[in-house]
Amino acid sequence: MGVLKSALTELLSSLPGGTTRGNEVAKSLGIERTLAWKICKIVQETDPLAAIPFIPGRSGIAILLKAAKRRGVPERALRAVRDALHGIDDLIATHAGDRASLEIMASACSRGQSAHIELGHRRAAFQANSFIWGAQARTQFKAVLVRPADDPQRLDFAALRGLIDLRRLRSDVPWPVARSRVADDADGIARRPYPGEPLEDGPTEGTVVPFLRRFCSHPLPELRRVCRAHGFVDDELPPGPVGNTGAVTCVIGDVCRAAASRYRDSHNRIGALIQPVHTPCEVLLLDQIIQEDTFGRITPEMVVHSLLTTDAHAVTSPHDLPRLPVSGAVQYLGKGLAAMTTRDVPRYVEMAQYVFDRLGWETSRFDVYRLRIEYPPIPTLVVMRHPLPNPPAEAPLSGSEA
Question: What pTM does this model have?
Answer without folding.
Answer: 0.76
